[in-house]
Design brief:
single chain, alpha/beta, five-stranded mixed β-sheet, 7 strands
Length: 426
Amino acid sequence: MKKSSSERRGLPVIHDRVAGIYIGSRFHVVAVPADLTDVPVRTFQAFTADLEQMADWLVDLGVTTVAMESTGVYWIPVYEILESYGLHVVLANARDARAVPGRKTDINDAQWNQRLHACGLLRASFHPDREIAALRSYLRLRERHLDYAAAHTQHMQKALIHMNLQLHHVVSDVTGVTGMRIIRAIVAGERDVGRLAAMRDTRCKSSVEIIRSALVGNYQPEHVFALEQALAMYDAYQVQLDVCEQQIAQSLMRLSQQKPTSSEPLPKPRHRTRQPNALNLDVRTLLYQLVGVDLTQIHGIGPYLALRLVAECGTDLSRWRTAHHFTFWLTAPGCLISGGKVLSAHTRKTKNRVTAHLRLAAVTIGKTNTALGAFYRRLSARVGKAKAVTATARKIAILFYNAMRFGMAYQDPGPLTMNKSIGREW
């Protein structure tokens, strides 16, 4: 029996019926093994009908798994359509498949992906289930709406400064209760500083006299118009935020219906203060019904952060065999060792959203009187704040992994606990 070229070169074929796809914005190039068809490389347009034709062609050839790179957002419709046809799709990181030998072309990229996947040399990137992916999309869309609303908040503040209204100096947040009452009254035509200052909320720290002095300004019509436009756009995004939150609540309830009801009641919250940009729904109760454990008992993880972590990682963390595999996916510090010598121990650059959330949580927890906070401060004094943030974020990730996978309930051992004891029992 004549051996294939890959076997002669020492690369055994693990998957026989595989395909490799080069993802483009206008067209996609698909490569299959040469023994399956006379035309092993075909090009398909990016239209939906062509993608369905691509899927039919692969199914007719008996292809069982497909490999492609995560190019921008163009891979998403291809991934979803191929998956709906029953094909196993491997979404590879471009960093793992970029060493294309020879001259780089679209055909070479597709054939290289097909060859690497046939030899089992491509690692699939994490992609959550359909319902978790939908929840993740809703949350990411909500975050974009928050960013856009924040930009129009700055526009309102700029218009106030043009009119020399020093409102941002006398209230902590211009979008708070006091600030929005005054801004809406100004847009409605109110100019009396006494009436405007009387709209002060009782919780505002500034007195009525100080607010009255700050609201004596120069009301030019063009600046008032700019304020009115910025307020209208801010309100429009608030409406869209409410719609997103309704979709998030429905998605959480659909996911919770698939899980058994927990027999133990929800623990009492550690903090009753409302976080900035928090959702207007009971996130703790919905998450507890979904995962069966109160993630907010872990220091540094509030209801909103817990929801974002679940939306990004899913509810089944068994896809990572151990907590070390999970932290490696989060690009925790890793060592490059050759000949028994550590070549590098730097943290790799990443765009992982979970990593960014955990690092922010680590900075916040460094100010608390907890075991994790004490660990952050001790490490910060010894190796610097940058490495302390990374190490603390890794410990929070391990706590989150063990709580999600094994249902472990976290109890703070106290700030006097030794550095390594936090990680040992977890």
